[in-house]
């Protein structure tokens, strides 16, 4: 019988298509790597003003007018803090086909100053400003006789406790224009706020009169220069009183409504701050025994998170039946303290939020910072305090509160907790208390490579993740350190409940997990620093060697070429041999899959693929194309990924295929393993008490 070659060829083609369909995967990737340096990166703002909150501008990354997606195409890491005045860095790390890192910086400026009043005389003027006590080291005032402030004179006032600036040697009958701004010095660099609006005053007329006849000096009348008999203010605002005579004594009828920020009386100024809704009478007695009163009414704006209704509380009462919050834990860092209190803050609770007080003394006098929490994260209401000085001890107490019409109802205070806020920027005198070691978690016990995120186990007996940090090459910009937080990068790391999204590490049994990303190869020195009020102490030093990913990958590829090919082979024959080697049973597996979903495991990671021998329909064609470039001799290397709409039947057949062409001859190559080779039946959690499967680094 005559053989039907046409039918035989059709059957052969159908078998090839079926095999390609069976090996296909839904993993989407581009075949060509793109460095982030070739993209356009823009921050939503590069200058922000301090507002007591963490501020992180949004990042927009585009490539060829296409907006890239965060977490899919890149990861963003911000400098720690982002609350206080200073310069901060945004690091963008490429992901998928986007490689490399890029950095942008933004600045947080001090809070803006405000001119409250100006009192002018013949040759002098007194400028009353709204005092800024947080993130401010002083003021700068400029003044001139023209509204555009050309050739203006400048006065710098150090310190943030005075709200009065005196101008001398002015000309009589002259109008002066002035504006003011704050400044803050951070690590030797001065940061200035935006200028206030321009104010003006006119000095008085000169006059000459006869020499007065000496007479007995009458007692000067006590009057307000700044302040009033009746004042209504919102809570947490300063209230500065200046009177005509020097003050002997100040009495505040209700210190929960307003309190004095002066530990001693000085001159004719009185500095106060409003606290809770209600009314109090401030009685000022001068050195002559005269009295002057100022009635202060304080309001407070509060939101009911359950009804989404805003109220203005005008009074406050105590209800001992409200629950006393339990302080579960306290986190702290450079200039901030977060207090975590157990609770649900649900609609069925008798309270709607927590309110915390913080002061540098346990009597809560002279200085009180107030913070409130109305939302719950992981079963805790978080009361946050910011803009704190380091190297000091602070005292904290918390209570619950609710609202009824315009009345704020508060419960009893919790126990007072003390928190030491360490000094971070200088060496201290306290000796180290704990030990620190670093382990890699992958079962391959692989080296560390650039552009590959690496989870590391920090074995330590230190129970407080806030009290230590690791410093790489003195905060080398080529390194990113971050934590997984609620995203949980790896499914096989059993995290413990450490109630924190603000610390650098994730808590596990026997220590912590930290994540590192290196952009350049080299030797890095890791310092483990413990912090105390006096400063930091280096508890241990570990040296890490980081290998270059591209160099290691190329060396691996060249080794395979030398092992599988000979000089007399054609380019196609060489690629046939390389592909056959890569497709040998058991050599490569697909990415780890659990319940049909791709999962990341720290003990069996994906990267680098030439160590883990796991890849997908994204990496495998890209590497085949690189093999073809090393082999040489091809007129065209074509990746089929973009030839068809993603998800279409044709795309499913061709997206992991590389077409190689020499002259009129084209051959197709694909080495992606079947998806089932990555399937696992269960996720085995890492046992941190067993270090035998880990590699000690350093």
TrEMBL record:
Signal peptide region: 1-30
The entry's keywords: Signal
The organism's place on the tree of life at top rank: Bacteria
UniProt xrefs under InterPro entries: Ig-like_fold (IPR013783)
Name the record gives this protein: Fibronectin type-III domain-containing protein
Naturally occurring in which organism (per UniProt): Butyribacter intestini
């Amino acid at each position: 019988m005559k053989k039907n070659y046409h039918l035989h060829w059709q059957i052969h083609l159908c078998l090839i298509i079926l095999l390609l369909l069976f090996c296909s995967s839904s993993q989407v990737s581009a075949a060509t790597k793109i460095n982030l340096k070739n993209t356009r990166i823009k921050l939503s703002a590069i200058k922000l003003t301090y507002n007591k909150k963490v501020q992180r501008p949004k990042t927009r990354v585009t490539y060829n007018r296409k907006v890239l997606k965060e977490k899919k195409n890149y990861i963003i890491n911000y400098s720690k803090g982002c609350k206080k005045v200073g310069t901060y860095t945004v690091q963008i790390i490429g992901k998928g086909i986007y490689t490399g890192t890029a950095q942008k910086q933004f600045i947080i400026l001090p809070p803006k100053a405000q001119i409250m009043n100006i009192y002018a005389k013949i040759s002098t003027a007194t400028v009353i400003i709204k005092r800024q006590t947080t993130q401010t080291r002083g003021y700068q005032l400029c003044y001139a006789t023209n509204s555009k402030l050309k050739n203006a004179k400048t006065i710098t006032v150090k310190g943030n406790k005075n709200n009065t600036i005196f101008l001398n040697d002015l000309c009589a009958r002259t109008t002066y224009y002035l504006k003011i701004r704050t400044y803050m010095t951070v690590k030797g660099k001065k940061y200035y706020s935006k200028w206030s609006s321009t104010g003006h005053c006119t000095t008085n007329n000169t006059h000459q009169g006869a020499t007065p006849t000496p007479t007995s000096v009458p007692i000067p009348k006590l009057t307000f220069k700044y302040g009033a008999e009746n004042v209504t203010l919102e809570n947490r605002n300063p209230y500065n009183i200046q009177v005509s005579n020097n003050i002997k004594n100040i009495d505040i009828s209700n210190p929960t409504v307003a309190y004095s920020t002066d530990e001693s009386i000085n001159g004719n100024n009185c500095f106060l701050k409003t606290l809770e809704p209600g009314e109090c009478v401030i009685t000022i007695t001068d050195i002559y025994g005269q009295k002057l009163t100022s009635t202060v009414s304080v309001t407070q704006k509060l939101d009911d998170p359950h009804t989404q209704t805003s109220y203005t509380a005008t009074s406050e009462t105590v209800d001992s039946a409200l629950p006393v919050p339990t302080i579960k834990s306290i986190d702290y860092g450079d200039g901030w303290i977060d207090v975590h209190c157990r609770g649900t803050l649900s609609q069925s609770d008798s309270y709607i939020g927590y309110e915390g007080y913080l002061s540098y003394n346990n009597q809560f006098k002279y200085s009180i910072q107030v913070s409130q929490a109305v939302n719950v994260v992981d079963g805790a209401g978080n009361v946050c305090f910011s803009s704190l000085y380091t190297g000091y001890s602070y005292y904290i107490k918390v209570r619950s509160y609710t609202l009824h019409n315009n009345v704020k109802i508060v419960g009893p205070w919790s126990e007072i907790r003390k928190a030491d806020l360490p000094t971070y920027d200088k060496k201290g005198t306290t000796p180290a208390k704990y030990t620190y070691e670093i382990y890699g978690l992958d079962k391959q016990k692989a080296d560390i490579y650039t552009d590959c995120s690496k989870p590391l186990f920090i074995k330590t007996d230190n129970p407080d993740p806030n009290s230590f940090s690791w410093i790489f090459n003195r905060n080398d910009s080529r390194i990113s350190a971050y934590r997984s937080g609620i995203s949980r990068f790896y499914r096989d790391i059993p995290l413990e409940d450490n109630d924190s999204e603000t610390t650098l590490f994730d808590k596990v049994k026997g220590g912590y997990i930290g994540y590192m990303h290196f952009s350049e190869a080299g030797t890095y020195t890791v310092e483990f620093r413990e912090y105390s009020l006096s400063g930091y102490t280096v508890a241990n030093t570990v040296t890490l060697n980081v290998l270059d990913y591209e160099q290691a990958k190329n060396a691996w590829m060249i080794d395979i070429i030398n092992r599988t090919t000979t000089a007399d082979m054609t380019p196609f024959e060489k690629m046939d041999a390389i592909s056959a080697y890569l497709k040998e049973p058991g050599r490569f597996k697909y990415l780890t899959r659990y319940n049909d979903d791709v999962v990341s495991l720290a003990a069996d990671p994906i990267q680098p693929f030439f160590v883990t021998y796991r890849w997908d329909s994204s990496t495998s064609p890209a590497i085949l194309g690189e093999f073809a470039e090393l082999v040489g001799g091809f007129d065209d290397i074509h990746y089929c990924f973009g030839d068809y709409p993603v998800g279409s039947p044709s795309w499913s057949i061709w997206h992991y295929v590389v077409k190689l062409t020499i002259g009129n001859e084209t051959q197709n190559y694909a080495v992606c393993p079947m998806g089932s080779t990555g399937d696992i039946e269960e996720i085995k959690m890492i046992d941190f008490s067993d270090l035998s499967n880990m590699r000690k680094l350093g």
